[in-house]
Description:
The structure holds two protein chains of two kinds. By secondary structure, chain A is an alpha/beta fold. Chain A has one domain (3-154): Beta Polymerase, domain 2 (2-Layer Sandwich), CATH 3.30.460.80. Chain A has helices at 3-13, 38-48, 104-114, 150-154, and strands at residues 18-25, 28-33, 52-60, 65-73, 78-86, 92-94, 117-119. In chain A, strand 4 and strand 5 (78-86) form a beta hairpin. Chain B folds into two domains: 3-39 and 327-391, Enolase-like, domain 1, CATH 3.30.390; 44-326, Cytochrome-c3 Hydrogenase, chain B (Orthogonal Bundle), CATH 1.10.645.10. Chain B has a three-stranded antiparallel β-sheet, with no helix packed on it. At the A-B interface, strand 3, strand 4 and helix 3 of A face strand 6, strand 7, strand 8 and helix 16 of B.
Amino acid sequence: MTREEIVKDLKGRFKADIIDFFDKSPKRVYMEIKPESLVRCASYIFKDLRARFNIASGVDTPTHIEILYHFSLEYINLLVTLRIKLERDNPAVDSLAPVFKGANWIEREIHEILGVDFKGHPDMRRLLLPDEWPAGVYPLRRDYTEWDKNAIRDRGV
Amino acid sequence: MAKSIIPIGPYHPLQEEPEFFTLTVDGETVVDIDVSIGYNHRGIEKLSEMKTFDQSTFVIERICGICSTSHPFAYTRAVEDIIPVEVPDRAKYIRTIIGEGERIHSHLLWLGLAGHFLGYNTVYMWVWKLREEILDAMEILSGNRNNYAMFKPGGVRRDINSEDIPPALRKIESIVPTLNKLKKAIIDDPVLHARLKGIGILTKEEALDYCALGPTSRASGVAKDVRKDAPYGAYDQVQWDMIVTENGDVFDKVVVRVLEMFESVKIMKQCLENLPPGEIDLNIKNIPPGEGIGAHEAPRGETFHYVRSDGTNRPARHKVRAPTFMNLPTFKATVIGETISDATIILASIDPCYCCTERMSVMNCRGKKIYSGEDLVRLSQDKTKLIQKKMGLK
């Protein structure tokens, strides 16, 4: 399939799920979809279009928490980015880790640094932050303030 | 037989960086593995949001000491993707030269360590001596043996002088005969065959499922390389081949890396000989609001940067994904079922780089001692007890 065919295919197939389709450049396409359609869209792109999952990046904006899932389609040199916007209070979305294993760690990372709940993730332990890090403090949130780091030191010793 | 746990790390003489593996073994066989990382977290993504676009280039150059260029390479491409602009040809060639020099010395460093892990210290000494030649060549070209500080959004910071090219080329060419000998010594060595063939196999399906990158996936028959798939820099201007092997075991990962070095020498030579004249920098002043993605094939696989700008002089969000982040989870597929004696080399076979994976900040307490030696011993004992409790062991 060529680039035009794939773009047309995506637009047609996920007509009801797409909120915004941004054809940025010959190599980049951004697709904003409804959060509940994520697993369906991502599975199609990963399995049927044989894309490689690059990574997801979580961004905290003033209005929403955005998660961008980047997929590479190497055979046509195109990077498709799925964008979902979640509510800032109790953000939650279905996990992609059961669909492909490459999503496992990044969801753990976004969970601890942005506080997004990935429903159905098989192993939602902490990845990078220490065990002593207090629950409910998310370092990449906009409202994050430095907390008393001595608390870590004094606990347990 | 009862299962037991072998903890490796966080500090271990064989490891150059802190990471913690929990190997569950049944007799000699590994039945489960768990990786804990986070000992190197420096919060660089957060730090980068407090710096200007130009300063960030230097911060992220310090994410990794070995592949120091791969992050600025991907980051500058991401910033250029926001605007969007194409850098001048000469800058593209210079970037390619630095990127490939780094690949050679990184692969050599890994090869030496792999030899060391196997108890084959001749390879270790031999290869690291060879690496000096490449570091010298990089010093001639960039002024630094490592952390070259050559990159900036819109081009490169320093030009390569034409009188520096012949001595650098001589240095680069001088490693080829030794590399050839090394290739024979490694690829035809019956001891290494016996030790490395058929262990730690990552199948093609698993490599795709885990989204493995770089030599780790190319050894499993996945023909993906950002330099070929989405050409950037001067990679589409020069002749070179992508190295792909089929078996996916540790031996093939060694072979891929050894053969890739020859390709890198080829690329560097062509770039240095055909360096186009012209500008090296676009002098970008303002970054408009928007978002950009940049990727670079680092020695360990694709480095991926996502940068968002809100129109100020600082990135609003800067996401860094190092190749090891995707390659580390493949341990679940490769180590389970192997013996403990093979586990170390399998763990080393992806060329893990934890600094990159964790991108994280060590707090400086200004001379104030947080833990005494006794505290550390107690902490480590507590942790062991905790793990035993978690796993239901005594």
